[in-house]
Amino acid sequence: MLPQKKVLVVEDNELNREILCDILSPEYAVLQAENGQAALDVLKENGESISLILLDIVMPVMDGYSFLSHMKENSAYSVIPVIVTTQSDSEADEVAALSHGATDFVSKPYKPQIILHRVASIIHLRETAAMVNRVQYDRLTGLYNKEFFYNKAKNMLLQHPDKKYEIVCSDIENFKLINDIFGIPAGDQLLREVASVYRRLVGDKGISCRLNADQFVCLVEHHREYDDEIFQNADEQIHALANMKNVIMKWGIYTVEDRSLTIEQMCDRAFLAARSINGQYGKYFAMFEDEMHDSLVREQAITDVMERALEEEQFEIYLQPQYQIRGTKLAGAEALIRWNHPEWGFQSPGVFIPLFEKNGFITKLDQYVWSRACKVLREWEDKGYPPISVSVNVSRADIYNVDLPKIMTELIKENNLSPDRLHLEITESAYTENPVQIVETVTQLRKLGFVVEMDDFGSGYSSLNTLNNLPIDVLKLDMEFIRSETAKPASQGILRFVIDLAHWIKLHVIAEGVETKEQLERLANIDCDYVQGYYFAKPMPCGEFENLLKESMEKEGGTI
Ligand code: C2E
Ligand code: MG
Ligand code: MG
Fold it and tell me: Which one, 40, 205, 307, 466, has the greatest CB density within 10 A?
């Protein structure tokens, strides 16, 4: 049985209260209050679960009108419909009740059938309105929600085939970070402010919507040329909020030209434009251009075939050797994915990895890489090669997977390997984006025996003094960092300092992207532990790497 709907009767006269309870209680759960103040207390306790209020006007302590004004101030209660009970058929009373926000009125003496009908129909009306609201509007900002916007925008374009329209969208840089640092309520307030920017921007010339999280979009009739000033003003409105000085929004605009596109595709184009200026200081907005579309088409084509590519084993792991700097002894390898598409040929990870990170496929691909790496390690151990380690890349999406430690442990067990044979590379920027989650997951992985490396150190904004608090074993210096630091005179760079510090907190250091003898010597001079780079070898198929293993074993005097 459905729970009974709650009706609150507010009336100081006990007899009247009883009459109303008798009328209502066969159909509703009736709550009672003897004056406005008591009614506010009942509201506080039951909140929005109350479907309707029957309210007397003349009461001691707090009368009906004051109760109505208090109630309307609170947005959680203000939506509850109120029927005012008036003493007579006095028009003045009724007008006063309605002007204070009452939904309807009934006059005394009570007529049971009329009261029941009014109550039922008003509750029904309110529920229908609430449903429509839920379907049409985003609860947080009051803008249209995605589905409704798509539909309404489509109709607008159909109804006005000759008008010129634009899709304008925006994305907040690092919104997640804002939520983490300032808290969800501040994040919510920011989003509401963005919504008000949109209302101002669009006026009565179009419609706006919150697509998801921090992405907003509007369809607006062309009524002005866009320039930096418009969007700078929008930013200023947001900066006026407490603690929001650093919030950066990027805006994208698609001029609706090809009406055969879906609204979703048009929005994609506007967002593509916005994304094209991500990270560019002083750029507020960008117009969509056709070249941007080409990359979208390309991304779509990759997305369409990626699952099949994995099934058909078009992905292969390559291994790039890593050496101990002292004595250049082979110490391990990094597993790097390669995609050899039957028609497109070799695809660069630089193109498909960021896309897979965006569409989520990376978690599947990474697990494939880890599993291949473990199989190779097993094979070599069976062949009696020395037990080197393989580093695998763990993308940030993997970190959010609560099963990560379990998946890793199972892989190790399946292949009967010790966990320290698998080194897990996690990029530096992941640490700055979500430190809490990372530290938790990585601590767990280390407890299980895996070796954790911070990849690309020096490419982002990790501060050296946070290194001490992070659960890592190895610092992997970024290629660009090595390149720029080794180009400076030895006395001027911070490379030596970073390596000393890392050693001091008991981290091993590996330099990646070492391309020249000079770089190698420089790194050796300042006691870097390991190196990886084209100077020694490019990433290679596993079979070729096996030859290196063989050679290194012979050099060490071992036998197979
Ligand atoms: P990364 O993990 O920092 O890998 C190092 C990249 O530098 C590799 O590029 C490697 O081939 C390249 N490299 C190594 N030594 C040198 C050198 O001396 N000079 C130059 N110019 N480049 C060098 P690659 O294989 O194209 O991978 C690029 C990025 O793609 C990787 O950066 C990593 O972030 C990602 N990636 C590659 N494979 C995987 C994977 O299996 N899973 C995940 N999640 N990401 C991967
Ligand atoms: Mg790596
Ligand atoms: Mg790297």
Answer: 40
